[in-house]
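Exercise 7b. Backbone tokens:
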């Protein structure tokens, strides 16, 4: 499968134009999409358990360690989400 992916990247005109604009992605393996899929889902707030199921894993801890690594803003988004919830609770309380 990986060989077909490499051949596709080398022979498809659309991919060649895309990779010319994004040279940092030229070495991207097909399997790397799984990692970015898991990380992007986590960044959007999807639970690791759901990501685990979507990736077909049996062990959520394996998914957490291997595929659902936090992106640059993941923790900031979580803090912002918590802060917004807390503000709403305080407004309703006061």
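Sequence design result:
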């Amino acid at each position: 499968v990986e060989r077909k992916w490499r051949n596709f990247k080398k022979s498809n005109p659309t991919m060649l134009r895309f990779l010319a604009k994004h040279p940092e992605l030229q070495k991207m393996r097909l399997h790397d999409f799984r990692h970015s899929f898991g990380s992007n889902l986590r960044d959007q707030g999807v639970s690791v358990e759901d990501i685990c199921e979507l990736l077909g894993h049996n062990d959520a801890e394996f998914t957490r360690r291997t595929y659902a690594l936090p992106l640059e803003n993941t923790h900031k988004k979580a803090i912002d989400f918590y802060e917004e919830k807390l503000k709403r609770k305080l407004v309703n309380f006061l």
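Instructor comment: The chain is about 70% helix and 0% strand. Residues 32-94 form one domain.
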